[in-house]
Amino acid sequence: MELIRIEGIEKRYWNGEEEIRALDDLNLNIKEGEFVAIVGPSGSGKSTLMNLLGCLDLPTAGEYYLNGENVAKMSEDRLSRIRNTEIGFVFQGYNLIPTLDAMENVELPLVYRGLRKTERRELSREALTRVGLENRLFHRPGQMSGGQQQRVAIARAIAARPPVILADEPTGNLDSQSGQEVMEILKSLNGEGRTVILITHDDRIAAQAHRKIRIQDGKIIEISS
């Protein structure tokens, strides 16, 4: 089943009088349950594309359909619900709150969903166990390695059981072993039926996805399985 369809997507910015085309006439389909890697060098437009796919931004031109619904016609409340319940975000910088322990960091987005404390605790513990951190529930970020912090970030992304995971350079700050551990978690989540969209500059990481979409200068230049 088709999850994502983008048609003629463009994203333009202005730097003084100079027009910058971050994305230029992109066309792409992603099916439910796929593991897709979007790969390209810094400045290629891949993070801009992730922001559009994650409903964090809207295109300048073109159309984006999510589950058959035109994102441009959605209300801000609807977009907010999608970001909060249907998409789990994982970023390169972890974005953990240093004064909160792992459980509290994972629990925080669930507070905004209005879940009761007992349910939030149960989901947080389940997610942290899922990424192998059952012995680090009450450690703060400063007491954990980079790889462990990224696993907390993944647990936070999956705690609400969203069907889509968007991961932007999730291995970018990690050594090769920790990076591969993160990839194994993402592959396992995909194996359970979640759609995983991975943004990376690393071809070795991208090669582990089912499909690789190479982007350069805002254009898709190659799609390979």
Automatic annotation (TrEMBL):
<dbReference type="InterPro" id="IPR003593">
    <property type="entry name" value="AAA+_ATPase"/>
</dbReference>
<dbReference type="InterPro" id="IPR003439">
    <property type="entry name" value="ABC_transporter-like_ATP-bd"/>
</dbReference>
<keyword id="KW-0547">Nucleotide-binding</keyword>
<dbReference type="Pfam" id="PF00005">
    <property type="entry name" value="ABC_tran"/>
</dbReference>
<dbReference type="GO" id="GO:0005524">
    <property type="term" value="F:ATP binding"/>
</dbReference>
<feature type="domain" description="ABC transporter">
    <location>
        <begin position="4"/>
        <end position="223"/>
    </location>
</feature>
<dbReference type="GO" id="GO:0098796">
    <property type="term" value="C:membrane protein complex"/>
</dbReference>
<dbReference type="InterPro" id="IPR027417">
    <property type="entry name" value="P-loop_NTPase"/>
</dbReference>
<dbReference type="GO" id="GO:0005886">
    <property type="term" value="C:plasma membrane"/>
</dbReference>
<keyword id="KW-0813">Transport</keyword>
<protein>
    <submittedName>
        <fullName>ABC transporter ATP-binding protein</fullName>
    </submittedName>
</protein>
<dbReference type="GO" id="GO:0016887">
    <property type="term" value="F:ATP hydrolysis activity"/>
</dbReference>
<keyword id="KW-0067">ATP-binding</keyword>
<dbReference type="InterPro" id="IPR017871">
    <property type="entry name" value="ABC_transporter-like_CS"/>
</dbReference>
<dbReference type="InterPro" id="IPR015854">
    <property type="entry name" value="ABC_transpr_LolD-like"/>
</dbReference>
<dbReference type="InterPro" id="IPR017911">
    <property type="entry name" value="MacB-like_ATP-bd"/>
</dbReference>
<dbReference type="GO" id="GO:0022857">
    <property type="term" value="F:transmembrane transporter activity"/>
</dbReference>
